[in-house]
Sequence to fold (208 residues):
Amino acid sequence: MSRSGFFISFEGIDGSGKSTQTRLLKDQLERMGRDVILTREPGGSPGAEEIRALVLQGDPDRWSARTEILLFTAARRDHLERTIQPALEAGKVVICDRFADSTRMYQGLSRGDLREAVDQLHSLMIGVEPDLTVLIDMDPAQGLARALSRKTVEERFEDFGEDLQTRMRAGFLALADEFANRFIVIDGSREIDAVARDITAAVQQRLN
Ligand code: ADP
Ligand code: TYD
Fold:
């Protein structure tokens, strides 16, 4: 894939501040004269947004973990072809709220050890990693309280509760060690502006 642009993903547990910080980073980079698109997973293209409704609404046991891996990967393939790849080819900065690391964690860890299956499908069907991944790390109880205060219909995963969030936090930190070349870890428990300043500084350094 041609990549004259720059691909940034944001990861972290639910409620850690990804949506807030991706928006602030987009505004900041645009002020610096960059051409930026902000997108998200699951979703980010019309087809992938349809899959989003399938995976995020309904009973927690609606899908098995293996079926979820297929659905998230199908959504990601469509998002990659129709949104991410064209933007990178046009030289844009792509900011994506969650990407494949979320599948490594949520489907790969939450219900049995399916990490190997996630990685195999990823290399077969996606084969792309971000240039930079911003992990917003925070206390799971705090994250869950923030996430639940939003009250949306997309609560299949939030129904899984604090125990899952705690395992996801540990898993994300382990992933940051595993892919240390592309991850930065930011303390998300602070005020919004303090978190944003750290993220902008780290991104600026990588972009230059
Ligand atoms: P995520 O996308 O990771 O789930 P959001 O950005 O949607 O997180 O944030 C979840 C909630 O917490 C929102 O209501 C948001 O306004 C609030 N929030 C985000 N960052 C902070 C922060 N640093 N301090 C306090 N509240 C925050
Ligand atoms: P998101 O809308 O980012 O939720 P939040 O803002 O609460 O962090 O993602 C919705 C849910 O989808 C989230 O609980 C994590 C889950 N998810 C997976 O399980 N696998 C994936 O591959 C992705 C991208 C998300």
User: Anything to note?
Assistant: The pocket of thymidine-5'-diphosphate (ligand 2) is lined by residues 14-15, 18-19, 41-42, 56, 72, 97-98, 102-103, 106-107, 147, 157 (CB under 6 Å). The beta strands are 6-11, 36-40, 93-97, 132-137, 183-187.
